[in-house]
Amino acid sequence: MKRRARRGLRLAMLALTIVMLVWTLFPVYYMVLLSLTPTNDLFQPALYIDHPTLRSYIYTMGQDNPFVRYFWQQLLTSLTVSLWTMALVAIIAAMGSFAMARMKFRFRRYISGLTLFTYVIPSSFLAIPFFQMMAGYDLIDTKLALVLAMVTFATPYALWVLSDYARSLPPEIEEAGAIDGAGTVATFFYLYVPLIVPPLIAIGTYAFLYAWNEYLYALLLLTGEQHIPLPVAMSNFLTTDNAPWNLLMAVSTVYSIPPVVLYYAFKRYLVSGLVSGAVSGT
Amino acid sequence: MTGTTREGGLAAPSRVAVTPRARLPRVLRSATLQGFVFTAPLLFLFAAFVLYPMVSGLYAATDPDSYRAIFGDPVFRQTVSNTIWYVVVAVNVKLVLALLLSGVLDYPFLSTRVLAALFLIPWAIPALPGILSFRWMLNSQWGIFNHLLTKLGLSSVPWLAQHDTALAFVIIFHIWKYLPFWTIIFLAGRRAIPSELYEAAAIDGGSLAQNFFSITFPLLKSLYLICTLLSMVFTLGDFTVPWLLTGGAPGDTTHVLATLAYRYTFAMGRLEWGLSTFAVALPITLLFIGMLMRWVKI
Question: Which fold would CATH assign to domain B60-295?
Answer without folding.
Answer: MetI-like fold (1.10.3720)
